[in-house]
Design brief:
By secondary structure, the protein is an alpha+beta fold. The protein is 34% helix and 24% strand. It has 4 helices and 5 strands. The chain has a 5-stranded antiparallel sheet with strand order 2-3-1-5-4. A hairpin with a 2-residue loop joins strand 4 and strand 5. It starts with a helix and ends in a 13-residue tail after the last strand.
Length: 133
């Protein structure tokens, strides 16, 4: 069975809505299975999975739909000439309610062609621990 090139292009296109929804659903299920313990609520969210093209402005625009964003920081590689995003960043909201809405609204969603994950930020120096019980 031969497929026309237009059909192949459509089949392999990453712009397909069905494809985007499938990837987001798989990523969400994968993330949910990894999380064993909920982080304590915070007005600051840790956002991972960012594209190298993501800027502070793009991140702010995406999260501002859910509340008053006070501060946004995309962590960049200071050693590279282009100062590309390292794949993660932080978004700080005015209050916990907005932060929760932002986390739920943007977790496992697409931003700049990548599925991103949002969770409450942990205090500096506190890392994730695994229970080996």
């Amino acid at each position: 069975m031969a497929m026309r090139s237009g059909n192949l292009r459509r089949f392999f296109s990453t712009n397909s809505t069905l494809f985007d929804q499938s990837i987001a659903a798989i990523a969400s299920a994968s993330f949910a299975s990894r999380v064993t313990e909920q982080d304590p609520p915070s007005t600051t969210l840790f956002v991972s999975g960012l594209s190298r093209r993501t800027t502070n402005q793009k991140l702010r625009e995406a999260f501002a739909k859910f509340g008053d964003v006070i501060h946004v920081r995309v962590v960049t590689d200071r050693n590279s000439l282009t100062k590309d995003c390292k794949g993660f960043g932080f978004v700080r909201y005015d209050n916990l309610e907005d932060a929760e809405k932002g986390m739920k609204g943007m977790d496992a969603q697409l931003l700049d062609g990548r599925v991103i994950f949002a969770e409450y930020a942990r205090p500096k120096g506190q890392s994730a621990t695994l229970d080996n019980d």
